[in-house]
Write a structure and sequence with these properties.
The chain is an alpha+beta fold. It has 6 helices and 8 strands. Strand 1 and strand 2 form a beta hairpin.
Length: 191
């Protein structure tokens, strides 16, 4: 055995059948022990069944993959924020507003609002609603990279309901075309 010749600790993972014939994942730890003269006189080892941990890790990977697919595929903008600073934004958000994700990460939302007053109103209302109800929604206008203002519905929810400072997920639905269609319909009805 390698550990007898080289000393030290040997650690590795492998699969083996348990007493019931089930294939399980194990981590093996081995080390030699020596007498007072430094002569190897034995081997000590520990084996730990890590099957449940491996299954949990695989379930987590699958869950993360599923969430990433949803994040990439939904037809609305989604972003993760912490203290009104962008941490991530999905493809739809980036395409709708003309900002590559790399340019957003680490920036505040300041550049999106028409006025400082509107930025303050949105922030105040979102955070008050989150504190009171655990979720918030409101309407505002956000500025695209080309300067065009878009009507949007914002919905925000904390990533961790016990710690709002951990960040929020914000869904951004562009309702500009819907609002225009409603105004046009109303105009036509009023004629």
């Amino acid at each position: 055995d390698k550990v007898f010749h080289c000393g030290g600790v040997q650690r590795y993972e492998s699969q083996a059948e348990n007493a019931h014939g089930e294939l399980r994942d194990f981590v093996f730890n081995k080390a030699v022990f020596s007498d007072t003269k430094g002569t190897v006189i034995g081997l000590i080892g520990a084996i730990m069944d890590i099957t449940e941990r491996k299954q949990a890790e695989e379930a987590l990977r699958e869950s993360e993959s599923n969430l990433q697919s949803v994040f990439d595929a939904v037809p609305v903008g989604i972003c993760f924020m912490k203290g009104r600073v962008y941490k991530r934004a999905n493809k739809n958000w980036c395409e709708s507003f003309g900002y590559p994700e790399e340019e957003l990460i680490g920036k505040t939302t300041d550049f999106l609002y028409e006025t400082e007053e509107e930025k303050e109103r949105v922030g105040k209302q979102l955070y008050e609603n989150i504190h009171e109800r655990g979720i918030a929604s409101l309407f505002t206008r956000l500025k695209r990279s080309d300067g065009q203002l878009r009507d949007v519905a914002l919905m925000a929810k904390p990533l961790n309901s016990r710690d709002i400072e951990a960040g929020t997920v914000v869904v951004v639905l562009d309702i500009t075309d819907r609002n225009r269609a409603e105004k046009e319909k109303k105009r036509l009805e009023d004629q």
